[in-house]
Amino acid sequence: MNAHDRRNLEFILSMDPDQILEFFESMPADDIFYAIELIQLAKCEVIIKSLELIESVETDFADARAVLTRIMTL
């Protein structure tokens, strides 16, 4: 998404629900499709960033297993 698209997305996301409805009612279909595409692209970016964060988390549970083992043997 380029800077122009990002500014348009920020504009769309800054509106409250009533403003969005009024905005979409005044726009031609091509502009509505463009706005929806921007929202979908932003959604994909959020999903990708979330997956990257999940992948970056280390999954070393050795300490947790050791504590649980000590508790279970009491």
Outline of the structure:
With 74 residues, this protein is mostly helical. It is built from four helices and no strands.
Total helices: the number is 4
Average pLDDT reading: 91
Largest sheet: none
Structural class: mainly alpha
Gyration radius from CA atoms, angstroms: 22 Å
The proportion of residues forming helix, as a percent range, comes to over 70%
Number of domains: 1
Categorize the overall geometry: elongated
Give the SSE order as H and E letters: HHHH
Distance between the termini: 57 Å
* Proportion in β-strands: under 5%
Number of strands: 0
* Low-confidence region ranges: none
Sum up the structure in keywords:
74 residues; mainly alpha; 4 helices; 80% helix
Structural write-up:
There is one protein chain. The chain is mainly α. The chain has one domain (3-72). Helices cover 80% and strands 0% of the residues. It is built from four helices and no strands. The termini are far apart. The model has no long low-confidence stretch (mean pLDDT 91).
Secondary-structure map with pairings?
Blueprint: H1 3-13, H2 17-25, H3 29-56, H4 62-72
Helix pairs in contact: 1-3
